[in-house]
Design brief:
The structure holds two protein chains of two kinds.
Chain A lengths: L10 H19 L5 H38 L6 E4 L8 H10 L37 E5 L13 E5 L4 E5 H6 L10 E4 L2 E9 L2 H7 L17 H10 L2 E2 L1 E5 L3 H4 L7 H9 L2 E5 L6 E5 L5 E2 H17 L11 E3 L14 E4 L4 H13 L6 H46 L1 H9 L4 H39 L12 H28 L2 H6 L1
Parallel strand pairs in A: 4-6
Antiparallel strand pairs in A: 1-13, 2-3, 5-6, 7-11, 8-10, 8-12, 9-10
Helix pairs in contact in A: 1-13, 2-11, 2-13, 2-14, 8-9, 10-11, 11-14, 13-14
Chain B lengths: L1 E8 L9 E8 L4 E6 L5 H8 L11 E5 L5 E3 L8 H8 E4 L11 H11 L4 H15 L4 H4 L10 H13 L5 E5 L7 H17 L10 E5 L3 H7 L2 E6 L2 E2 L5 E2 H4 L5 H8 L11
Parallel strand pairs in B: 3-8, 3-9, 6-7, 7-8
Antiparallel strand pairs in B: 1-2, 1-4, 4-5, 9-10, 9-11
Helix pairs in contact in B: 3-4, 3-6, 6-7
Classes of the chains: A alpha+beta, B alpha/beta.
Chain lengths: 514, 271
């Protein structure tokens, strides 16, 4: 039933009412009688807000410390497993790929593709949104991590589900004799050409990997070449200290010790020595540079050599040009860092995930590491659980305290509220007044709480973890910063409303009589 | 103004009826004294008429007619915004002033105006005019900016009267407004109420102002009231509100005392 009003409830009316009630609430809160009560309420709210912020800031300090530790010595906290696959994708990487692509490629489409053998659970989606069936399925994707690095070329690759392919790092390519700018379409693996699906280029890490006594793993690289793939690559592309060149044309034979100046310059530049081989019409070429040459390096040298000789009038006969002969050679042992599959992590949470992942994949790794990890995880959970329980308890006590304070305050003001009702203040206005009072308490309490919590959290992190605790600045999680003010607002307004409920719902005659 | 027929009222959980079959007509422009011994139902009647009781009441008829001719039926509680009726039509003076101690006297007086949505400037203007009209000597005006807690009880009560009058209500319900005051302050407070009744404290409009006051002071009521609601055990003595013409032939004040149930020699009930 619509009530008869003496004047309409207009916008101006509501606007005025808010202004009046705000003024009224401010006066009520700073009333001399209840100033300490207001202060106690604010302190309760400060506790509710400051504690979670301080604790999360402290935990952020722990995270900062672990990050700093990882940055200083990445191998210490990495999990290592002996190779069973050619490429390992971390869970995070898988999620990134899943999110970045637009259409499903079924797991069976990826069978035989290096790097995806062990990730058959992934549903890949292509960008163009069209399905081309089982064969010829392609998916275009960009590496979201690498493309975010300024100056990095990033990964732009087309995965062809029906073709075998590999993902290889720039470092490995350099070791195979490729120049920095080269992007080979395929590499020889075993007896077949294998398509290069992607080149992982990470300037900050790949360059640093070279020349270090103990190689560092690229920090953000989620896939690493394993021993198996490395051996395949080495088998197809072994290094050679020396090669043979035959048959040597008769005109060249006379010039072995007196080569033309341009050719001399070339062999000096490339650190190559020429010696006579016991076989007839054969030269031995020995390379003494820092990196052993592979087939394609030798071939490139021979081409240049023949060109230089020809430029000096010593052209090789067309019918029987000198050819490169490669000696039988043993495959050299893999460098230590290619003997492992690395799952690289940057914090303890990812470390635990990585441990689970490796366990699920039956990858081998050090039991001691697992035991330590379990211990750290258990202790961390216990400490976190205790902290959360204490926080909740304190928040409950503070909330209860707030409710009791507000109830007692409004109980003392019962007669005044009764008089206000007698003068014509409606229940809705009284309710609004309570909400505004609660809101004002919340505003002050939350503001102070956030400041106190941030300062306390930063101080704790600094005291416990030193400068590492504030790596990247003091940043409590956003969900804590969002949730605590919401909880505080609910507590404050609920306490105010419940505190005034008795007075609001009692007839003025009753409240005045009390 | 008020038309009441067979009004009965019972507090929840109480077997005794506080008001029992009360019927009367209350015309505009009158001063009505509500008299009776303690527990006779005086305050209850005031609370019911002043809409200070939220619970249901039993009556055949209980209506209020405002100056504009609108009729408010108390028996249909959900049909009106009663807080607005209280705000515009009624004013209340209680035994205690019930001032908000942390507001100044001026701000306390201005609350009904603020609730009506008047601007701060308009409120100041009206309060200045009211204070001047109420006390041309300026004594009350000087208290305007002092906190209510810092003024004396008598001054506070006079401020409470001004608060009840500031929005120019049509009816003022005064529940023993003088009972806590010394004779001087009682006289000043009463004078304020009577002057409002007479000329609206300077407004000089003719909206049929009505004063309904509860008192134990028979002499005072006989001096100033022109209608008398004498309650005994929740019932109106004589079944109606009596006029001076009804009581004067029988002895006036003595007749009132007799009807209240007091012996003549007991005279006044101490305030």
């Amino acid at each position: 039933m619509k009530r008869t009003r003496l004047w309409p409830n207009t916008w101006q009316d509501r606007h005025w009412r808010f202004g009046f009630l705000t003024w009224f609430a401010r006066r009520n809160l700073w009333e001399k009688r209840f100033r300490w009560v207001t202060a106690a309420s604010i302190v309760s709210l400060v506790l509710v807000v400051a504690l979670p912020v301080a604790v999360s800031g402290f935990l952020g300090g722990l995270d900062g410390r672990s990050r700093a530790e990882l940055a200083r010595n990445p191998l210490n906290l990495c999990l290592w497993a002996r190779g069973g696959t050619d490429v390992v994708l971390t869970r995070e990487k898988i999620v990134e790929i899943e999110q970045g692509l637009a259409r499903t490629i079924r797991p069976e489409h990826l069978k035989g593709v290096y790097g995806f053998d062990r990730t058959s659970r992934i549903d890949f989606k292509s960008k163009d949104g069209t399905s081309r069936g089982l064969h010829g399925q392609t998916a275009l994707w960009n590496d979201p991590v690498l493309t975010s690095i300024p100056g990095a070329e990033g990964l732009h690759s087309t995965l062809n589900a029906t073709t075998e392919g590999i993902i290889i790092t720039r470092t490995a390519l350099a070791e195979l004799g490729f120049a920095a700018a080269e992007r080979p379409e395929s590499l020889r693996v075993k007896d077949c050409d294998c398509r290069v699906l992607a080149i992982a280029e990470h300037p900050g890490s790949a360059d640093r990997d070279l020349g270090e006594d103990r190689p560092l793993l690229p920090q953000r690289l989620d896939y690493l070449i394993t021993e198996r793939l490395y051996l395949h690559l080495q088998e197809a592309n072994p290094p050679y200290d020396f090669v043979r060149l035959r048959p040597i044309p008769a005109a060249w034979q006379k010039q072995r010790t007196g080569l033309p100046p341009a050719v001399k310059k070339l062999i000096q530049y490339e650190n190559v020595q020429i010696s006579r081989d016991p076989l007839p019409n054969t030269w031995d070429l020995i390379q003494s540079g820092p990196q052993p040459w592979r087939r394609r390096n030798w071939q490139a040298f021979i081409d240049k050599f023949v060109e230089a000789m020809a430029a000096d009038g010593l052209s090789a006969p067309h019918d029987q040009p000198p050819r490169l002969e490669l000696p039988e050679t043993d495959i050299p042992p893999a460098p230590a860092y290619y003997s492992y599959v690395g799952v690289y992590v940057t914090d303890l949470e990812s470390l635990a995930k990585a441990a689970l992942f490796c366990r699920a994949e039956n990858l081998l790794f050090d039991d001691e590491v697992v035991r330590k990890l379990d211990e750290i995880g258990t202790r961390s959970r216990e400490i976190l659980g205790s902290l959360v329980a204490i926080e909740v308890l304190i928040a409950l006590v503070a909330g209860l305290n707030l409710g009791i304070i507000q109830y007692l305050r409004h109980r003392q003001r019962m007669a005044e509220i009764g008089m206000l009702k007698a003068m014509g203040m409606s229940r809705a206005m009284l309710g609004s007044l309570a909400v505004i009072e609660g809101g004002m308490l919340w505003l002050v309490g939350t503001g102070l709480g956030l400041i106190v919590g941030c300062v306390a959290g930063a101080a704790l992190a600094l005291a416990k973890f030193g400068a590492d605790g504030l790596v990247g600045g003091f940043r409590p999680p956003w969900h804590v910063l969002l949730a605590t003010p919401i909880v505080a607002a609910m507590l404050s307004i609920a306490a105010s409303l419940l505190g005034t409920a008795g007075a609001r719902n009692t007839a003025p005659s009753e409240t005045l009589r009390r | 103004m008020f038309s009441v027929r067979n009004l009965s009222f019972q507090y929840p959980g109480n077997a005794h009826k506080a008001l029992d079959a009360v019927s009367f007509e209350l015309p505009a422009g009158t001063i009505t004294a509500v008299l009776g011994l303690s527990g006779a139902g005086k305050t209850t009647l005031l609370n019911v008429l002043g809409l200070l009781w939220d619970g249901p009441v039993q009556a055949e008829r209980l209506v209020y007619n405002d100056a504009a001719g609108r009729t408010y039926d108390y028996l249909h509680r959900g049909a009106y915004c009663w807080d607005q009726v209280r705000l515009c039509e009624f004013g209340f003076v209680m035994q205690s002033a019930h001032m908000l101690p942390h507001f100044s006297c001026g701000e306390n007086i201005a609350i009904p105006l603020a609730l009506q949505g008047l601007s701060r400037r308009e409120r100041r203007r009206r309060i200045s005019r009211l204070l001047h009209a109420a006390d041309p000597s300026g004594e009350l005006g000087r208290l305007r900016h002092r906190l209510a807690i810092d003024v004396s009880g008598g001054q506070r009560q006079r401020m409470a009267v001004l608060r009840a009058l500031v929005h120019n209500p049509r009816i003022v319900f005064a529940d023993e407004p003088l009972s806590n005051l010394d004779p001087l302050n009682a006289r000043l407070t009463l004078d304020l109420l009577l002057r409002w009744k007479k000329d609206g404290l300077g407004t000089n409009d003719n909206n049929g102002r009505c004063l309904v006051f509860v008192t134990h002071d028979v002499h005072l009521s006989w001096q100033h009231a022109d209608r008398f609601a004498i309650l005994r055990d929740g019932r109106l003595d004589g079944g109606q509100v009596l006029s001076r013409a009804d009581l004067a032939p029988c002895g006036g004040e003595d007749e009132i005392r007799r009807r209240m149930g007091c012996a003549a020699e007991e005279d006044e009930v101490p305030a």
